[in-house]
Design the sequence.
């Protein structure tokens, strides 16, 4: 896959540093007490972190490619959001501490919105919405539908925070901050959530691979996405013949690519939407965003170990369907039972025709099987690139064992799909 800009783990913190530094150069206060100076500075630091956080919400393929992928963006999005909240919470407390030296009543008046007007009201409303949004983001047992709705509190927090800056009386170049906040929130809402940046597709084929897994073939209705094996897309399926629709955007790994722009998506029933998609019918319209990911972009030019668990076999199927292997690949495919193992028969047929593919299909009844006897020894792993795809427990166990057997972290490739 062509990639003109090499992603680096340093890009995102570098962007945050540049944004925060630029704001501080514009806004550094003069001739104020140390506490008041600190309060104002920490407030602008919070604004800079918030701006970077909002940038990381955007689901633009080129931006994701530059910043190291959606997984990296979402991970930093969570961290920067938490640090922005802490900075913006310290901001009014530092201003109140400065007023305390004059009188406790003045310190309380600094914090009390009913004594300060709409500027202070908007600041506290923004903080409360941000606090609620962060609690929702950290609540693992909350259903996806409820999480999605409540997560909008963070967008509301950003918008009210922009109003807070305007009400404080900013002028000149500093007005660009609330304008940027508004622009980034609206970009995310309309381009990603409302699908204005998505490409229209239609379902042309549906194959039921197992009782809980379906492969959907999509045909583009406009210019197709330039996807590669190992990548994934975000897709929303509208109502169609015999199908009431599932309009939420979810990540699906590409299982097949056609010369005419068609793509296959392997979908396992893991939640409300994916269970509903087991009944999707040809003719259903879909909107697709992407492609995203670099899962098979690195290290495919030499011998490799592929480890897949369940529906995590999908990117490897796409790669094998794309053409004969150029280098030896050892594929370990773990599944619960043969009846529920999508693509198992096809993989067996591919292994019979591709001499460089060494297939090991394992019936793993346990949630996380003992990988010790299954993975190659340290000697056999030398020089291999290891690609892993499957449930989080399997990924963690495989990475830990590979590292124990001397595999460098740079040779272990995997992507997580938990984008909450």
Sequence:
């Amino acid at each position: 896959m062509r990639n003109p800009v090499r992603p680096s783990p340093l890009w995102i913190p570098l962007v945050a540093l540049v944004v925060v530094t630029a704001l501080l150069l514009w806004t550094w206060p003069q001739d104020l007490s140390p506490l008041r100076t600190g309060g104002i500075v920490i407030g602008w630091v919070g604004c800079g972190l918030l701006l970077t956080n909002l940038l990381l919400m955007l689901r633009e393929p080129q931006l994701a490619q530059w910043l190291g992928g959606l997984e990296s963006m979402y991970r930093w999005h969570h961290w920067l959001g938490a640090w922005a909240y802490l900075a913006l919470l310290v901001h009014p407390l530092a201003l109140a501490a400065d007023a305390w030296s004059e009188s406790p009543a003045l310190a309380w008046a600094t914090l009390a919105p009913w004594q300060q007007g709409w500027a202070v009201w908007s600041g506290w409303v923004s903080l409360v919405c941000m606090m609620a949004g962060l609690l929702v983001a950290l609540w693992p047992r909350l259903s996806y539908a409820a999480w999605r709705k409540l997560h909008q509190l963070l967008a509301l927090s950003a918008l009210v925070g922009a109003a807070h800056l305007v009400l404080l009386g900013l002028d000149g170049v500093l007005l660009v901050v609330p304008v940027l906040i508004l622009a980034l929130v609206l970009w995310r809402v309309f381009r990603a959530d409302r699908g204005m940046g998505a490409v229209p597709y239609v379902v042309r084929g549906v194959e039921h691979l197992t009782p809980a897994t379906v492969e959907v073939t999509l045909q583009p209705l406009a210019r197709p996405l330039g996807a590669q094996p190992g990548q994934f897309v975000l897709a929303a399926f509208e109502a169609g013949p015999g199908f009431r629709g599932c309009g939420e955007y979810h990540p699906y790994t590409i299982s097949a690519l056609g010369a005419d722009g068609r793509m296959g998506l392997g979908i396992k029933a893991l939640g409300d939407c994916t269970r509903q998609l087991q009944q999707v019918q040809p003719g259903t319209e879909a909107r697709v965003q992407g492609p995203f990911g670099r899962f098979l972009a690195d290290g495919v030019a030499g011998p490799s170990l592929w480890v897949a668990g369940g529906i995590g076999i999908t990117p490897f199927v796409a790669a094998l369907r794309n053409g004969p292997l150029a280098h030896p690949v050892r594929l370990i495919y773990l599944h619960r039972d043969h009846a529920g193992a999508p693509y198992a028969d096809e993989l067996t047929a591919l292994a019979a025709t591709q001499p460089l593919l060494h297939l090991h299909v394992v019936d793993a009844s346990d949630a996380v099987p003992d990988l010790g006897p299954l993975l190659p020894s340290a000697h056999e792993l030398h020089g291999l690139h290891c690609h892993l795809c499957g449930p989080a427990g399997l990924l963690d166990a495989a990475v830990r064992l590979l590292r124990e057997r001397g595999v460098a972290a740079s040779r272990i490739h995997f992507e997580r799909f938990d984008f909450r």
